[in-house]
Amino acid sequence: MGQDGNQLVWFKRDLRVDDHFPLCRAAERGPVLPLYVIEPDYWQLDDTSQRQQDFLAECLDDLGVALKKLGLPLQIMSGSVVECLARLHDAHRLTAIHAHEETGNDWTFRRDRAVRAWCRDRGIEFIEYPQFGVERGLSDRDGWARQWEGFMGQEPAEPPTGA
Asked: What gap in Å lies between CA 32 and CA 73, rounded to an integer?
């Protein structure tokens, strides 16, 4: 395992440890701090529901148990992601943030751009990993099927063996 400083893994929608590239890559680089942020503004959107929140709570419980087995306690915070990251950076001096590239709605896209700008301003590397073979921000779809097949043909990422 390399020692590139504190690596934050920001869990968004993919709440598992198996085949989770951001978690695996972060663990290869240094100490890992797993994070999930409950975003109250997100839950006010028309395309969210209490049923989704209930399911999320169950998934976070399961994720917390799985991460604890790896010696990586899940940090759950509430508020804007940028504000939560700022608090964690003050406490842990983050070197990099690893996350899946989310293909959600415009709200999540704007949030991710704000996180990217915040990281850039602080010299923190923000690494987003494609998920499901979908790449955000392509200028055209030329070669997309070939890229998708390559992505889907990759071996699953093994979870880290512990902290």
From this structure: 9
Say if CB 16 and CB 66 are below 8 A apart. yes
Smallest CA-to-CA distance from 131 within 26, 12, 36, 33 is with 12
In angstroms, rounded to a whole number, what is the distance separating the alpha carbons of residues 36 and 67?
12
CA dihedral 139, 156, 112, 12 (to 10 degrees): 140
pLDDT tens-place string over residues 24-46: 999 999 999 999 999 999 999 99
Rounded to two decimals, the pTM is 0.82
Among 9-23, 99-113, 135-149, the least confident range: 135-149
Alpha carbon distances (Å) from 130 to 21, 41, 134, 151, 162: 9, 25, 6, 9, 24
How many CB atoms are located within 10 Å of the residue 106 CB?
A: 8
Q: What's the token pair of residue 114?
A: 């704000």
Contact at 8 Å (CB) between 32 and 160?
A: yes
Mean pLDDT of the chain: 88
Residue 151: pLDDT over 60? no
